[in-house]
From TrEMBL, chain A:
UniProt-listed Gene3D superfamilies: MetI-like (1.10.3720.10)
Record's keyword annotation contains ATP-binding: no
Protein name per Swiss-Prot or TrEMBL: ABC transporter permease
Localisation: Cell membrane
Family, as annotated: Belongs to the binding-protein-dependent transport system permease family.
Domain ABC transmembrane type-1, chain residue ranges per copy: 71-283
Source superkingdom: Bacteria
Annotated organism of origin: Paenibacillus jilunlii
Keywords: Cell membrane, Membrane, Transmembrane, Transmembrane helix, Transport
TrEMBL record, chain B:
UniProt keyword annotations, A-Z: Signal
Species: Paenibacillus jilunlii
Protein name, per record: Raffinose/stachyose/melibiose transport system substrate-binding protein
Residues in the signal sequence: 1-19
Gene3D superfamilies per record: Periplasmic binding protein-like II
Record-linked InterPro entries: Bact_solute-bd_prot1, SBP
The keyword Signal appears for this protein: yes
Taxonomic lineage: Bacteria, Bacillati, Bacillota, Bacilli, Bacillales
Length: 294, 437
């Protein structure tokens, strides 16, 4: 027996090694390096730098109002995205599932925006917001369309949400569609025979059966929304001023355009990493408990 | 047994994979070694040298290649050195990242291009720039250009290629039709604006979507003030003793005036859209430098426009053209072929050949050897410079410039007051001092 388990380990290692070594070289080591730099004041250019302990972390959370603002703005964005993206995706999935003949068509249509890269869709929408909508407003006298969609900080948050949803809903919808197809028809029929209304069937039968998909979608949305960058970069560039600056953008600005404080920017990234880690653990922990088996 | 052999086979494969990586490195090292020996011994008569250059201007590849070819010929004829040049041209977006990595890992190119005003101070401090003060080309530089490549302790560390002289752009056709001339004081500016508005012409094109555009008002205001009332401003700021509140009226008097008389929806108009609007005559003036000339002429080839200094108060002495340099060539102090590298730099300002290079790349003249005819708007800016109506771009740290762009955007959108903006600027400069002490 021991010989066999030894062989088992060797072959496991042999199969994992190529991927693991590349992962180690290009992801794990740089990540740990980044964490190390977060305790230094390296500026990306000097040969020598000093170790300053938790100084960067304290500065980020205590003395950097822009960072805290971007953190709160990102949290607001995450909240809106989790709720809206999942609701829209689920509703679309349920509606498309009821169609038998045109299912493929609608699925393709709603998934299509997801195939365009985020930054390009952001530029497309910039054009829509700044050129198309004002023109429509002029031609049709719908004056509410003629406003500063991306130039006014109060409105631009919703513009960002619109573009993110347009881009992201399709993917979640596909996951929900797959899950819906896995719900046994017999259970639904049994519920109908017992006199359940369509809404009751959905709530008491379908929804519990697709909780695993909900877990995945929440996880993906949460993770993606915290790391949002391209949409905001393409639409508003974080502006006007820093009013729509998200956390990744704040980090980017710190590292590559201000004083090149790589150490400080690394510290901010570590903070973001920890936040995402905590939120994801809580979310997975809570939702795993609610899942049921068919 | 079969399983065992399979396992072994896979391990072997993995090992070959790794060995493959390893042998690649070995191969590179071997090549590098080969290069060294060849440059060391070479043939008895001609010395051969490989010169590495790093210039992030892909659009001028042809011009550089031609010029380098001529240099190689000249070096062979004059000194009997066989020079082969490796010209690296990454895209401008990540060039400074690549360069920094190369410098930090002791793999510096012999000659590299950096941004004169933004990058020289930090690179010089880190010890990556060779002192070029004693080189012959320094004597040929125009006096108006030299300060932008000179460090605070008086050493010339780079050769400027691209220089800028700018204020704001104005539509000459509109100005002539209305019988106007570029104003020299803020009051005159108000008169000009009044006359334009009376004819239903929007005085200014506004384009504040990109934060570096509203930022432009800062170097102009600070430059004007430093030449007249506040010459020690930058030094004071560097010692944590000054404050931007000294600049409050210089910045905001003119900025408010421009905003009140500009086109709508400024926060949604970027640089290119602004250029199109200006080219279409939607505004008579645009707070922008002549670096947008190409874009403007692309959308309206017939547009006649000029460069004029922006008035910031009622002192005509403070209405000045801003002079600065951007792309500049520097030599690495660790270069093994320093002699050849310096020869190349001197050749860039060669008495005969230099004219052709600068003209081909459409750069402004930087040296006394440049005698070619430049664009009308550059000639116009140069007349101001010759009349002494110019100021060296004040050495404002890049982080402060970024901050002022964001601040003025927010100010325009009504989110920050004037004092908030100035406070944020003071803070940005203080943190710059802290980081770069």
């Amino acid at each position: 027996m021991p010989v066999k388990s030894y062989k088992h380990i060797v072959s496991l290692l042999a199969f994992v090694a190529p991927a693991f070594i590349i992962y180690l070289l290009f992801l794990l080591i740089p990540t740990i390096g980044g964490m190390y730099y977060s305790f230094t004041d390296w500026n990306g250019l000097n040969r020598n730098y000093s170790f300053i302990g938790l100084g960067n972390f304290i500065e980020a959370l205590r003395e950097d109002p822009d960072f805290v603002h971007s953190l709160l703005f990102t949290l607001k964005y995450v909240l809106f995205m989790i709720v809206l993206q999942n609701i829209f995706a689920l509703v679309l999935a349920v509606f498309i599932e009821t169609k038998t003949r045109t299912k493929g068509f609608f699925r393709t249509i709603f998934f299509m925006p997801n195939m365009i890269s985020t930054i390009i869709s952001a530029f497309m929408w910039t054009f829509v917001f700044s050129q198309v909508l004002p023109q429509i407003a002029e031609k049709t006298a719908m004056s509410f369309l003629d406003q500063l969609w991306i130039g006014d900080p109060k409105v631009s948050f919703y513009s960002i949400i619109i573009v993110s949803l347009w881009n992201g809903v399709g993917y979640m919808m596909i996951i929900y569609l797959a899950a819906l197809q896995g719900v046994p028809q017999s259970l639904k029929e049994a519920a109908v025979i017992d006199g359940a209304s369509p809404f009751q069937t959905f709530r008491k039968v379908t929804l519990p059966m697709i909780t695993h998909a909900v877990t995945i979608c929440f996880f993906l949305t949460l993770n993606g929304a915290f790391k949002v960058f391209e949409v905001v970069y393409g639409l508003t560039g974080g502006g006007p001023g820093r009013s729509t600056q998200v956390i990744t953008m704040n980090i980017y600005e710190e590292a590559f355009s201000n004083n090149f404080r790589y150490g400080y920017a690394s510290a901010k990234s570590v903070i973001l990493f920890v936040i995402i880690l905590i939120f994801t653990f809580i979310q997975i922990g809570v939702m795993k408990r609610k899942e049921v088996e068919a | 047994m079969k399983k065992m052999s399979k396992g072994l086979l896979v391990t072997f494969l993995a090992a070959t994979l790794l060995a493959g990586c390893g042998s690649n490195n070995g191969g590179n090292a071997g090549n590098a070694a080969g290069d060294n020996t060849s440059s060391g011994s070479g043939s008895a008569s001609a010395k051969s040298v490989t010169l590495k250059m790093f210039i992030a201007q892909t659009r001028f590849k042809e011009q550089y290649d031609n010029y380098i070819a001529e240099f190689v010929k000249k070096e062979k004829a004059d000194k009997n050195i066989d020079v082969s040049v490796q010209l690296e041209m990454p895209t401008a977006d990540n060039a400074s990242q690549i360069l920094k990595t190369r410098l930090a890992s002791n793999d510096a190119p012999d000659i590299f291009a950096i941004h004169a005003v933004n990058e020289i101070p930090s690179y010089y401090k880190a010890g990556y720039l060779e002192d070029l003060t004693s080189q012959p080309f320094v004597g040929k530089l125009l006096d108006s250009v030299k300060p932008s490549v000179t460090t605070t302790d008086g050493k010339v560390v780079a050769l400027p290629l691209e220089t800028l002289s700018w204020g704001y752009l104005y539509n000459k056709k509109i100005f002539t039709e209305q019988g106007l001339t570029p104003p020299t004081t803020l009051t005159e500016m108000k008169t000009v604006i009044g006359k334009l508005k009376a004819k239903n012409i929007t005085p200014f094109v506004l384009s504040y979507k990109e934060s570096w555009i509203p930022q432009l008002v800062l170097p102009l205001a600070v430059g004007g003030m430093m030449k007249t009332e506040d010459p020690e401003f930058v030094n004071k700021m560097n010692k944590d003793e000054g404050s931007f509140s000294e600049m409050k009226s210089a910045i905001f008097d003119v900025f408010d005036l421009i905003n009140e008389n500009g086109t709508a929806k400024a926060t949604e108009v970027g640089g290119d859209d602004g250029a199109a609007a200006f080219a279409a005559g939607k505004g008579a003036m645009w707070l922008m430098g002549p670096w947008y000339a190409e874009t403007i002429l692309k959308s309206n080839p017939d547009l006649d426009f000029g460069v004029a200094p922006l008035p910031i108060n009622d002192n005509p002495e403070a209405t000045l053209i801003n002079l600065s340099a951007s792309t500049s060539l520097a030599v690495s102090p660790t270069s093994k072929n320093k002699e050849v590298a310096l020869d190349f730099l001197n050749y860039v300002l060669d008495d005969q050949a230099s004219n052709g290079l600068f003209q081909a790349m459409k750069f402004n003249p930087v040296s006394t050897v440049h005698t070619y005819e430049s664009y009308p708007w550059i000639t116009e800016a140069t007349t101001y410079v010759k009349a002494g109506k110019s100021v060296q771009d004040p050495a404002i740290p890049q982080s402060v410039k970024d901050e002022v762009g964001k601040g003025l955007q927010a100010y325009y959108a009504g989110q920050m007051s004037q004092d908030d903006v100035l406070k944020a600027l003071d803070k940005a400069w203080k943190s710059y001092n802290k980081v770069n002490k």
